[in-house]
Each structure stands twice: as C-alpha cells, then as structure tokens.
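> run fold ATP-dependent DNA helicase RecG
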Amino acid sequence: MNANFLQTPIEYLKGVGPNRANLLKSELGIHTFQDLLNLFPNRYLDRTQFYKIGQLQRTNAEVQITGKITHFKTVEQKRGKRLVATFRDDTGVMELVWFRGQKWIREQLKLNVPYVIFGKTNFYNGTFSMPHPEMELQKDHEKSLRSAMQAVYPSTEKLANSGVTNRVINTLMQELFMASKNRFSETLSESIRNSLKLLSKSEALFNIHFPTSQEKLARSQYRLKFEELFYIQLQLIRKNLVHKAKIKGYPFKEIGKNFNTFYTKHLPFELTNAQKRVVKEIRNDLGSNAQMNRLLQGDVGSGKTIVALLSILIALDNGFQACLMAPTEILSVQHYNGLVELCKPLNTSIKLLTGSTKASERRKIHESLQNGSLDVLIGTHALLEDKVKFSNLGLAIIDEQHRFGVAQRSKLWHKNEYPPHVLVMTATPIPRTLAMSVYGDLDISVIDELPPGRKDINTVHRFDANRLKVFRFIRDEISKGRQVYMVYPLIQESEALDYKDLMDGYESVVREFPQPEYQISILHGKMKPADKEFEMDRFVRGETQIMVATTVIEVGVNVPNASVMIIESAERFGLSQLHQLRGRVGRGAEQSFCILMTSHKLSADAKTRLETMTRTSDGFEIAEVDLKLRGPGDIMGTQQSGVLNLRIADIIKDSEILKIARSYAIQVLKDDPVLRKPENKTIQNTFAQLTKYKNIWNYIS
Ligand code: ADP
Ligand code: MG
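> ok
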C-alpha cells in the first residue's frame, strides 16, 4: 500500500464516525490509518485452551469454558439489580453475572444450549463467577475463523466507557486490513531480510494483529522491533556522519609546549589506562578536520578533570581559547581552583565567571576574552550570556551534561565562525544501550576504571530498630578522627513533613552526641546562603564532626576526612541519588562506610535498590538496574530523545536487537552513505517517508 493510503484520516475507515474519530485522536493519538496500524497490542489472550469448571483456580487470568446456562435469576441489591445465570459443564457449576444491559442479555441468551464463554473469574462464598463474559454459541465459535490468539490493545478509561472496547478496536483493525487488502509496502531491503530471515512487512503486520501461531507472532514482533530500532539508529548514525563530513572544525594539528611540558613534567599522578585511552580518542578527534562532538562518561571520582585539562592544553597549543562550564557555582569554583593549581607551572591565564562575579571584574573578563589575552574561562551559565564573546574559542567543555539542555549546548557553538570542539562530561552513568539511542549522534568515551588505591566503600543496610548500634559505630569512627554525614530526604511534595523529620533527626543527634565533646553542623535548603557557607566551612575545616543535611550536599562537596555516610529513610531515595550521595565519602585514605537506614516496610523496588547498593559500587551496573526499575522515561536526558516513543521495542528488554539493528545500520551507511545504491532504495524511501511525515521518533512503518 502506498503512503497516501496510510495517511488517510481515520474517519474514513468503516465503523469510525466523527465521535469515535475524536475519541481515537484524543485518547490514543490515532489520526490516520497509519496510526491505527501502528497501534500494537499490549498482550494477547490465548484462546486455544479450554478449562473445566471443576479445575478452575483462583488466578487472575482469563479462562475459556464450554457449558450451558440452566437458569436465570435477578438479584436485588442496594445499588440496583444484577442478572445471574447458572452455568454448568460436566464437572461443576458457576455463575455468570451482568450489571448492565440485563434486559437485552436475558432476551438474547438461550437456556440449555452449549456456549463458549471467556473472561476473568472471581471466587466468592465457594462459587466461581464471571462478570460480563464474552459469549458465543459453540456452533458459531467452531465456525469462526478468528485467530486463536486475541490481541489486547492499549486503552483508556474514557474509551472503554464510551463503548470503544477492545472488541471494537479489533473490528476496526479488521476493517483496515480488508480495506488495504493486506498489502503493505516492504520497508527493509531484501538483503537485510534474507540475512536475518525476517518476515515480510505485510506478514509481520498481519500477525502482530491477528497471530496465526505463537511462532509467527514471535517472528512478527522481532521483525517490527528490529525495524523500529534500525531506523532510529540509521537516523542517528547518519546525522553523525553528515556532521563529520560537513561541519568543519578547527584542526588542532599541534601537540605543543603546554601539553608536552605538562604531560612530561607536571602530571600529578600517572594516568589510568582508561584515562590514557580517552585522551587518545580526544586527540584523534581534535586533530581531524571535523568538529568534535564527544560525550565523556565516567563515574564520580574516575578522573575526568585531568582529561578536560589535557584537552584544554591542546587547544591552547594551537592558539585557541577554551572554556569549561559547570552547573553550579560550587563546582565552577572547585574547577577553577583545581585548574589554576595544576597550571601554575605553565604560562596560562585562567578566569572564573559566575553569577556573583563583580561588574568591574566582569568587564575585564569580557575585554580580555575579546582581545584574546585570556586563555581559559571557567564558570556557570553566565558563560552563555550574550556579552561573553570569545576572540577564538576552539574548545568548549561542559561538565555534568544532563543539567544543560541541548539548546544550551548549541548556544556555545554560535559564539564563533566555526563551532568549537565540544566535550561533554557526565558522572551520571548512562547504560550503553541507552546511550546508543539517546546520544547516538555524539561519540562516546568511557572512563571505566577508578584511579588506583581507592578503597571500596563498605555499604550496609540497617533497620531503624538498630539505630543505637549505628550511633555506637559513629562514636567509634569519630573517636578515630573521622567525620560523618547524615542525610535526610527532602522531597518537594511533602516538604513540611520532611523538614520536621530533619529537625527531629537533628535534635536526636544532638541529644545522642552532646556538646562540647561533639560539634554538629546542619545544612538545608531553607537556610540563607551565608549561613550555609558558614556551616559548610566549619565541617570542611573539621570543627564539626557530624553534618546533618538534606540532599543539598549531593553535588560538589569534597571533604576527604568524612568517611561515614548515613542515609536516613534510604528507601525513599532513587538509585542514582543514593549512588551520588555515597560518592561523597571514600575520597580520603581511610576505609569509608555507607549505612542505609530504613523502616521495616519496604516495597519490592526499594528492596532491589538497597540490595543493589550493598552489592556493587559500579555506577554503570547501578544505572542498568535503575533503568530497569524506572524505565527510560525518568532517566535524565532522555526526554528529548525517541526512546520514550518506541512503539514496539523496549530499550531494555530488546537491547540485543538494538545492537544488531545498530550494526546493520552502520554497515548500510558505511557501504552507501547517502543511500544511493539500488539495493538500498527501499531503505531510502522509508527513511524519506519517516522524515517527511513526522519527526522520526514517531515511527512510521
Ligand atoms: P571526576 O571524574 O569525578 O570529575 P576528578 O577529576 O575530580 O573526578 O578526580 C577525582 C580525584 O581523583 C581527584 O582528587 C584527582 O586528583 C584524582 N585522580 C584523578 N586521576 C587520577 C589518577 N590517574 N591517579 C590518581 N589520582 C587521580
Ligand atoms: Mg568532576
């Protein structure tokens, strides 16, 4: 079928009037034949099995039974009448129940003739009953050619209440297949189909809606998932290739004095193998004629900063300026101090620009940027202001990518004639499978190795009932000279309550750890900035031993002497937050501990989170679990990507198919970058359609 047919508005389908059309549009986003065709079932009812009343179990599943109605009665209830039929087979008796449409049903149904009934059963007072069963005379059931496995489509309450039941959707789907004569254009090339032994498009579409067997269904799902993922990958990889071919970058051919002097004489430590590999990847990118667009992933503490510095030095060696942007003032200041210290032996000028930079200083910075006397600018969003103009920005580094949107990323680009090379660093590990889909248009480098000598943080889960033991442990650690964080959840919706928890917690800690022997800091979002700074400083200087805080300490706090992290109500935190919080300790030479305190009431997900935290400290592994628990929708940075809008594939469950789809997409584009070869005509056509009608993410077959 050609694309025009599929673009027909849904109201032109037999059985769809204006009312239904509006419902389908508003409830399911179905505007065209195409949209309906791509409404894939959530699950299937297996109607190949028959049950006997005598064998019914108290499960939640739908069952199919053959039997006869022997009796009807109407039962009066407070809230109205219900119609009850006695239904028998040769093994037992059950009831069929109707709350609506009783008169009609009573007239339609016949006594003592065999029916096939289908539905969910309830069990009450020793009897099974089935409310509003689907029913068919046995002789009709035998004749009907309906497939044994029945599709169940996504629905909404409004649809169901307006009579657009699953059965109606099934009927509409049948109409669509009849109108199209089940001839849908092929969308994958013959060579791919042969190589993976994929079903044809038409066969796959038919079997996804009307499966003729389990086996056909499985192959249809595979084919459609592959196709969906293939075109997303094709789009991403092509964008990347086009970008490389078209977007010229300044080639940094020189590895010169700054880099070499620093690398040979002033590196404060030997780089890990992972760091060396990543630096090499970046050097390759910078040396080519294309603009670099690279994501650097590395867990907290994996040493991304030194990689950033080495990249900056390459830019300087080639006569360009560089900038480094961080999401918060604290982080910017930390970077600034760190880089100034490291660059002392070199002759470079570095400045800091944040929201609190004074106007006079600001003017000086603007000036020196434009006349080229300033080499490196570090700061917050303030870097994006229009007044900030570089004379020749060659490299832009963004730390903690997920806090900046794509728009902000590109804003940096337009500061100069050519876009600068861009390096985006993130400590939020994104599972490879997801990264491939979300950031397929960026190249990815990973630091998957921590610097040597890091001690694993000993992580345990304790119930609130054992608090006294935990306090004793804290006392021991403090007596050894260590410092302790105690973190309380603070979640927007229940802020008042959480705040009370925090203050109660603080008071009990003060009681347990009395002055003057113990000094305690408290830090939360309601405090004035100056008070926060004061409390933070006391803790950093070691004047207080315990820091009671909300999650404000999550980002940018570095106190190596703090070796114990207590997380209160840990069941209320998400995995990535727990991981980030734990990253606050284990920064010094001492063995560090993380204690997750919870009540006894734990959901299954909470148990999994706690178990994961105590089992591993591998950020990528934790991110995988997080992704499985929450789905990609909640993972930062995925909102703009198509991962959310997948129609049939599941980014986690189908990661194997994703890998295969990606490798095929790469193969096709390597061999034929602009899809000009005759054998790729189908792919080119499909691709053009995809981009023509909609955004590619709203996948079209
Ligand atoms: P992040 O990746 O979280 O930004 P940093 O770059 O801040 O990590 O590095 C964390 C700490 O590890 C810093 O104190 C840094 O000096 C140190 N570090 C980084 N790389 C190495 C290395 N190869 N060997 C020893 N210490 C390192
Ligand atoms: Mg960092």
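The radius of gyration is 32 Å.
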